[in-house]
Amino acid sequence: MTAQQSTEERREALKEVFLVARSCERCPQLAQTRTQVVFGAGNADAALMFVGEAPGRDEDEQGLPFVGRSGQLLNTLLGEIGLQRDDVFIANVLKCRPPQNRDPHPEEIERCSPYLWRQLELIQPTVVVTLGNFATKLLRGDPAGIRTIHGRAEERVLGTRRVRLFPVYHPAAALRSTVNLGELRADFARIPELIAQGAPEQPEPVDLAAEPSADDVAAARAEAAEVPPQPAAPADQPAPAESQLGLF
Ligand code: SF4
After folding, report:
1. Per-residue pLDDT tens over the stretch 58-93
2. Which of 102, 116, 155, 234 registers the highest number of CB atoms within 10 A of its CB?
3. Domains contained in the chain, number
4. What's the CA-to-centroid distance between 109 and ligand 1, angstroms?
5. Which residues line ligand 1 (CB under 6 A)?
6. CA–CA dist 128, 139 (Å, integer)
7. How big, in percent rounded to 5, are the helix, strand and coil portions of the chain?
């Protein structure tokens, strides 16, 4: 079980997931048009994880998330709350750039989300900040839009862990509007307080010795149906350099 893995084991497992993702061709169009897969980067044991939408042109070229204008704004906002990129982990809903930066298609999100769930499971963040509509809707499992719910922290179970989920505007939206920028900055100012609250109480671990009730079985089946399948690591690929993965 992931909960019993050491920090080093989780880090190594994250690299294995990266190995799978970097040659992924589940989305035929994106696999053809991308320059490279942008898996995510940062501190593999971060308390704070950001989830954006998808790589843009700069990210596609460099292989790292949030390195263009949106990334520069993200760095500035992090600095204003006393954090740096190597304090956090940053990933996207999609690991490949959609052509002309079009919106991700629902089937692409479905195909790619197992990587994100696995990242969340291995990094074990306390606070997950969703940047914009796509990440927010995916991780909340709810169609509520970012304009309505940004800045509202809530506890959510993501996979096997309960986290503090905090939706905010995508930095790209803040670059287009000073009003959005002001609201994003105000939401960012609350992040240190959320981190300081520590991890929420975790769901009860399953007692394997106990006889499950019919309700338990039904609940477990429903939960299993929601958890996406985990990607398997290919055996014949070399281990990635940590700089390639952007790990700190
Ligand atoms: S977007 Fe995700 S699922 Fe689709 S090809 Fe890229 S890595 Fe694979």
Report:
1. 999 999 999 999 999 999 999 999 999 999 999 999
2. 116
3. 1
4. 8
5. 21, 24-27, 30-31, 37, 94-96, 108, 111-112
6. 9
7. 50, 10, 40
